[in-house]
Amino acid sequence: MDPLKKMTFVSSPVIDLLASMLRVVNHEQLKETEGLGGQVTKEIETWALETRKKVPEEMMKELETFFHHESYLAITLIPLIIKYELYSDVHSFLSALHNLEDEELYYYFINTGFGPDEELTTFSDPSAVISFLNKLNVPETEKWKLSYLIFDGPKTKQRLIKLIERFYYHYYESVEAQVVKDQQKWIDTMTDFTNERTTNYFNTLNKQFVINVEEWEKVIVTPSYFMDFSMLFMSIRKINLTAYVPGIRHIEVQDVGRGEKETLESIRTMTDEKRFKMLQLLNKQPMYGYELAQHLDVSNSTISHHLSALVARQFVQATRRENKVYYEVNQEEIKQVIRSLERLLIK
Hints:
Oligomer: single chain
Largest sheet: 4 strands, mixed
Mean pLDDT: 87
Helix content: 55-70%
Number of strands: 7
Low-confidence stretches: none
Distance between the termini: 51 Å
């Protein structure tokens, strides 16, 4: 059986609701990490900026609390949505959140990727929680915010539910039907595995993120209108779940060739100060995400964004060793980009 046929494709207005909230808060940051030099669909940019103007100040502060680009706390609910199959109905999702144990919510909050090897087994011991949070690769302000949200108990969950509910009714419900329509159109196109472009796309994704479909109970693909050219990826071994949330135009990132514009964008990707330092480190030895973040003293989110950009341009390749994904420099790809630049500048 073709491994790609084991991947499950699901339309989810619930996941795109979270993506829309992420877009409103972090539109500029998402643009910086879009795969085609900051390109973004005009309709999405207009919607994000216009919606931001309409959101009341106190609500914007709540959005920034749960969707800040350094922690993406509410985005960590996507595995929960998949685990309980809450894809299609926002009301069912909110009801499930009401009934969710506080500690399960906190579990998703702190499993944002590239964390320490150990797991926090209890949230009732303040010293254990603080000790664990100190090992996370997030800014100090985000650590304090996380500790406050955890120790604030049920109030945190109620704040999050109220925020999602308000945003849904005021800003998302009116576009929900079109979002679902665009998601389904993408699924209809992308599940044609006789199409070479489609199979190349998913084979490349699985290679980039070192996913062997046969090893996972669930490999979910749920397209997102609001992620546009970007993509979210999450993999949690404890619940045997891997999920891709590609923007419906993300495939265009992989269609990029090697003309003048693409060469310049590749150089731009490579010479960003943080990415350049990452390449220097990885050129010395392979590292996994948590190690990189520790060496560069940056957050999980920052490492994730920059690694995604480097992997998309094939400057970095990933290999799995036991339960960790290690990254190393693809020297041949860097040499090819430099040769392309040389042909453009030197006769």
